[in-house]
């Protein structure tokens, strides 16, 4: 990608160094076709602002994509964009690619649109891969109204170019495919594989685009740790038994190989596997010893959400009960003295839920924080800023720290 102009952050909200806040919202609103449409959506329950929670993000060119799962009634659009360049504190989200793909304007879409999107990823060929759970009202009375699927958009045209339905044999009772990461080494993306985590039924699904085939790995490392399933955040205590969630790919090494690092949400540990294992469908039942434990525990309150690795091999990850974004230089051993802190803030980084690293020549790390556990337990304060998108340069983020690849310990 060509280098882009640096971004305009909100000048009054720079208290999370080295992060800048690009946007922050008390509640999320959308760009409706007109104010009349907006009022109508509120009146008939298609738009309930308190039920709208931004969850995931991705960055490409001049835009940021934001996912909004249909966890409760009143989510009019499940995928939207905002400008990458800031300038407005709390912009309205623009449904992607347009309103016709979303249930507020197309309730009878027969599963041809978007239902409930958790995570997204963009390949280096400029295609947006959307992981759609197909489930609505999962926080109240879950309804599986469409099969889980992957929808691919061409970002040059913003048109859908493929839809891959996850086969029934890989969708277990209560499966929740919650994260997706793309792996391609060729310039034309012809070798692309997608790795997809089933957080509630503890599996790792692999999709090979060339022949549209799926296969699924199972392993005990995908399960939650019962000793890490008790969470405490700002006085709120809750229990989650979430399995494999965080996925991060190493840079391609000199042998054209990559490593997938992963962890359950309810865990203090990190694990890894060579992608050569994952890309071989014949290894599904013959790979138990290929999945490895990485180094030491992150310690008490070390539960992590999303993670991402920059082209220098530095991993960034959210520590959800510490209001922290952490880091690790993958060239160093994974032990506590090598695990650094990029930022910690008890206001702006409450539950850093998703993390992405863009594909610019000089990369930036992007974080969305959203107070998810509070949202699930009670209505959020509409007078407080509850959701933020923050960013910083990946080099600046770790310069002079234990995560700096230029510093050896």
From TrEMBL:
Source domain of life: Eukaryota
Record localization: Secreted
Cellular component GO terms, alphabetical: extracellular region
Matches recorded under InterPro entries: 6-blade_b-propeller_TolB-like, MRJP/yellow-related
Main location: secreted
Assigned keywords, A-Z: Secreted, Signal
Pfam families: MRJP
Family: Belongs to the major royal jelly protein family.
Protein name: Yellow-h2
Organism listed in the record: Euphydryas editha (Edith's checkerspot)
